[in-house]
Amino acid sequence: MSTKEKILEDLLLEEETQKQNEIVLFNDEVNTFDHVIETLIGVCDHTPEQAEQCSIIVHHNGKCTVKTGDYEDLKPRCTKLLQAGLSAEIV
Questions:
Q1: d(Cα 91, Cα 67) in Å, to the nearest integer?
Q2: How far is the C-alpha of 68 from the C-alpha of 32, rounded, in Å?
Q3: Adaptor protein ClpS core domain location, by residue (predicted)?
């Protein structure tokens, strides 16, 4: 195995083992679909279709993962969701 292949293999292994965090959005009886959709578009960079699908999943299942990534990226997004009156947490 060449050095280049070994470095690539190590890099791929490191990427696979990095823990990805998730923002989970929870259902509530307060916020409208429109508010949830607009907030997901603005905070989580969702497309309108993606935000609508997530809001429907949250409504029917009680929760939905709305964003996955590094904790440092998710923390300010989750804070903005909470400030908008939504119920969310990073897991």
A1: 11
A2: 24
A3: 17-84
